[in-house]
Protein 1
Amino acid sequence: MAFRVINGVEKTPKLKKRYPSDVEDAEWEFIAPYLALISPDSPQRKHDLREVLNALRYVVRTGIPWRFLPDSFPPWEAVYQQTLRWIDARVFEDLVDDLRELLRVAANRGKQPTAVIYDAQTLQGTIESGNRAGYDGHKKKKGSKVHIAVDTLGHLLALVVTPANEQERDQVAELSRQVQEITGKNVQLAWVDQGYTGIGVGGPRLYW
């Protein structure tokens, strides 16, 4: 182990603490090209992108505020700003879309699905939710509702987040718009439950 001498005092270097949320080598090999918005040797880059992604994953998995990031990660301000750049560049959407196509091909399916499934889940809110929270009388929860569209293999296609009091059927148009944009208007059928039709009871229904 290397040591540094500072003001006559021998100091051990700070070691990077590993966390369960850190990206694995195989994951990073696939993800890295999507995140590199500028050249790796660009003078604007002050922090290792893999460590920035590890910090973002840590925030997502633990739910901590940005400012609570452990000091073994890059500064929270740098992580936050880089996350905004990634979001603006839609790198995560591109990553999910390409990964879904690869998984479908590996399963001997076409790259784009012809059928999808719509569903929704209510998430319990927190104090920070503020005006974004709504009350889901059926689930008896106050918070947000995530409306999702997946292919028949369960791979994510689109999502819409609303207050929990919003009805599933009111999100069909936006989910459908996103699905058709992503798949090149390849989808012909959507499976939904009665929450999306507002009539009757029983099993899944067809929609398009």
Note: Residues 86 and 152 are 28 Å apart (CA to CA).
Protein 2
Amino acid sequence: MSTNNMAQPGGSHKSPAELEAEAFECEAKAATLRAEATRLRDAEQRIQQRATAVEKHEPRLLSASDLARRLSVSVAHVRRLDPPGVIVGDKSTKRYDLEEVRAWLQDREPTPTTPAKRIPPPDNDVDVIDSLAKVGITKVNTANDLRAESFSSRGTPNTKTRGK
């Protein structure tokens, strides 16, 4: 009998040479996987470095159109709001710091208030003439009295009535 066909301890039917060859294959595969992991890790680091570089090179002060784009509003709305900014150049160009403008907008937002309570109309009629008499007013001109006085001051008869 050959030694290759003999049962090995632990139930393995492979020869030592076959096992060594399989181990070398596994080690080669492991090395390939380690290299792939390293390549992916390096790619992730480059992406992160680019993102950091973009953030560092991004202008801190934004134009009105850039600010409008960042806030998702129109340029006209930015100009109407007139947020605090920095005058640059020829003293007519204004630049904005995004974080400062956001803080300014947060401070400007009106806080919700309780709506004014409406006073319900009175349930019963009040005798105004009696109430006024209690405070010393005894003569109350009605609309008819005023109309009559108006006619008499023009020299026209004050007995004019409608429809007759």
Note: Residues 16-57 form the longest helix (42 residues).
Protein 3
Amino acid sequence: MRPTRAVDTEVSYYPFAVPGPDGNQARIGGAAVGSYPRSPTSTGSIHITGPRSKDTPRLVPGYLATDHDRAVLVAGYARIRAVMAADPFATVAKDVAPLPDPSDADSIVRLSLDHGSVLNHQAGTCALGPGGAVEDDLRVRNTNRLRVADASVMPTLTTGNTAAPSMAIGWVAGGLILG
């Protein structure tokens, strides 16, 4: 795992209740807890499959492809299991499905790949800069009148949510387009 002092994991806790038949009384209540790497090093790709806009692109997400991302995931999982085993959670929390032991890294990664979800926002598919697909003015290289103005131009994923940076990119793009 790379040495860092930056936040490397985000833990999400989602309490929920499923309304009963009358719409008021909860028939099921609980919470879901999960974690994911905040600065993942795994990369994926997107590929054009044909010349028409209706041709579905091929997505290769590359989730948990690096040792760093797997180590961060496993450490987050172990921490969540420890927190949920302590009071006050221990008195009310229970697993709804069999879960791997925190020391079984391969099973934790497999569980995540088979049943997990992606909570971070993808970025960088059209990264800007010298090695990217997009010029500094947000124009796609070797095209006419085509710009990209969303999180895909970010060369790396931000540690925080991508909403504000994406809005800033849109604001800059508007200024570039309007002159």
Note: The first strand starts at residue 9 and ends at 19.
